[in-house]
Amino acid sequence: RAAIDLSLGRGGDQVVVKEGDNFKFYGGRTRELEKRTRVKARVIAYALRELIDQSSQVMIMGHENPDVDAMGAALGVYRIAKGRNKDAYIVLSQSNPSIETLMARIRKSGEYEGVFIGKNDAEVRINNKTLLVIVDTYRAKYTEHPELLKHTNQIVVIDHHRRGADFIKEASLTYQEIYASSTSEMVTEIIQYVDSNIKLNPVEGEALYAGIVIDTKGFTFKTGVRTFEAASFLRKQGVDTLSVKQLFQNDLSTFLNISITVGNAEMVWDNIAISVCPPNIKNAQLIAAKAADEILNLSGIKGAFVLCEINNGVAISGRSFGDINVQVILEKLGGGGHQTVAGVQLQNISIEKAKEKLKYAIIEYINEMEKSE
């Protein structure tokens, strides 16, 4: 049963074999097609509303080093909780380059004083009647503060990534839709069913819209009818698309480092490129992700991987058009994500060793695909 649930949670286009406590995945070559129904979203929305009403407070937590999608989803859930007259908090230890512009707007609005709390404050506030909502990840170890999951049995997971074997099994409610473009899209849809008269603050609407934009690469990847419907709802809420676009502007230093990284790209297979960020640069993970997107725009490339140095290790960002499943490749290194967008962090390893491991993972993936044809 666990293997079946895992297969369905990964899109239903794969075989999952359980060997003892381990799982092996086969397949995953087909592109994800939209198979969601509004009935499921409505049922989830009603269940979430009931859990919020029964709770003493709501605590929202994304993955470590959250991106715009995680922050947008967190702010959306925060607005739902406040609409139900509940105290709500967002667990965030510190900002990071990918969300700093958004966080600056949040601080400037002056409406979220005391909403964002650190790990220690969260541990003090949480109790067994707290509803803990996890957004944009299904893995406990990747959350902002995994220890919080031990302090309450009221847990909700809202995520759009393909499920792996280490998903949060203790959740009271799990809404995992791999056909959704982003967690922000899922939360936007939930908002409409929880309360049709809800009014988002400007920064909340912009964060949700930005989450959709960043994960769809400007409504290009994984964009279905429901994606545009969510965006339409946010526009009706007053979202300024120009203001959203300004969230993604690069400074000159970042732009130059992205250009250098793109220039460093080398072909390791017929249509797969690998590059490495310059050493000791600021905002390395952000640059790696953006460089991978840019490399994918080059003619003839269907898959791109960019490595960068992080504290005591290496981070890898993978991108593709869907013909190459970057999620399956990076899962071999302990990572995850989507067919077109994935990542992994490797600890206590050099760039050279990480690059070698990545090349072996790519070769292994290609051999598996050739055998299945």
Give an overview in words.
By secondary structure, the protein is of the alpha/beta class. It folds into three domains: 1-33, no CATH class; 34-247, Alpha-Beta Complex (inorganic pyrophosphatase (n-terminal core)), CATH 3.90.1640; 252-371, Diaminopimelate Epimerase, Chain A, domain 1, CATH 3.10.310. It contains 13 helices and 14 strands. The strands form three sheets. It has a six-stranded parallel beta sheet with strand order 5-4-3-6-7-8.
CATH class of the largest domain: Alpha Beta
**What is the ordering of alpha helices and beta strands?**
HEEHEHEHEHEEEHHHHHEEHEEHEEH
Query: How many beta-strand elements?
Result: 14
- Biggest sheet architecture: 6 strands, parallel
Q: Counting H and I runs of at least 4 residues, what is the number of helices?
A: 13
What structural class should be given to the helix and strand makeup? alpha/beta
Helix-residue proportion: 40-55%
Looking at CATH, the homologous superfamily of the largest domain is inorganic pyrophosphatase (n-terminal core)
Dominant shape: globular
Report the span from N to C terminus. Answer: 28 Å
In the CATH hierarchy, the third-tier topology of the largest domain is known as inorganic pyrophosphatase (n-terminal core)
Question: What number of domains?
Answer: 3
Q: Mean pLDDT score, rounded?
A: 88
Arrangement of strands in the largest sheet:
5-4-3-6-7-8
Q: What portion of the residues fall into strands of 2 or more residues?
A: 15-25%
- The stretches of 5 or more residues where confidence is low (pLDDT under 50) are 5-10
Q: Provide the CATH architecture of the largest domain.
A: Alpha-Beta Complex
CA radius of gyration is 20 Å
